[in-house]
């Protein structure tokens, strides 16, 4: 009966988002309160559970997500993303343009949130397609595959960062494992899949072609790469430092401090403020305005994350999480596959990768302690499932269709299939890693 009540709560969440068209944050709040009623939480405790869940999860994440948005916005506004794209094109040339697009999406997609990366880089892909007289879908899909993978797999993006916090995983280790899985997944869903798309007709509107900045206005390639990838260098470096420092060492507190993802992201933003901002002639008020716009861009993401934390806390306070864990532990299915499957189902129903990932986290979190499963791989398994088969209820589906100006049929044949390849091969990569580590 308990499982049925949980499923009813999730069904309410899905219907509120898909059928009633209610904002996901409000839908999470309503579903959390309904879950509290259904599962017998005392009335005077429901609001407290919702508030506690929101506060705990945001407390872990707000610095990482906000500073990540600031860094990404400055990388975009300063022209660093354009410099990286142009540099990679010069190396790869026309023959390997799809590989250049994939690498551009991977490098720039790490600090940029998905929607920002899409709006910034897709017009650049259009410009290159016109320049070399190549099919735009053939050029664009590898770029979007890389952006999707970074969005679903790699911290400090909101969903994987939130999952790391919920499962008490290690952000640096998750990022390292994620990169190992990301590279082959992007290759398959990007350049290899793109070979089948050369005959897809697309006529992007002139409005969406990039306004290319003069070379003289762009930062140097070294500055661009260093600043865009600094969070990766710091997260991986500090994680390795943590593993090499003994627990009893007097340096352990200092290492733990500098390895904290919030400190890593803050340092990255401060460095970028100088390297891409002040050093290149921006005034401090201009940089701060860029950061203000960036926080507006991700305000709703923060609220959705908070709402997911509320639902998870209700499940925890009612004891349902433990009941679910005990029930799922009897299933004859690998926990990583189970997590992926639940996420994929919610993703197809709801459309939002973030909502799907965070909803699954609330259901499956107890598996981390009751079953022998690596929390870092669990983050990646859910991240892969959250990208499964994007269709009509996903905003990304419509952004792709309108920007590339393709038919619904061709959108499904290209965009939806690409997302499915990312989800499936992402899971395969997770399972292979699980055999190795």
Gist of the model:
Helices cover about 75% and strands about 0% of the residues. It has helices spanning about 1-20, 25-40, 45-75, 80-90, 95-110, 115-130, 135-155, 160-165, 170-195, 220-245, 250-260, 260-275, 285-295, 300-315, 320-330, 335-350, 355-365, 365-370, 375-385, 395-405, 410-435. α2 (about 25-40) packs parallel to α14 (about 300-315).
Descriptive notes:
The protein is mainly α and 437 residues long. It has one domain. Helices cover 77% and strands 0% of the residues. It is built from 21 helices and no strands. Helix 3 runs antiparallel to helix 14 and helix 16 runs parallel beside helix 19. The protein is globular. The relative contact order is 0.15. The mean pLDDT is 87.
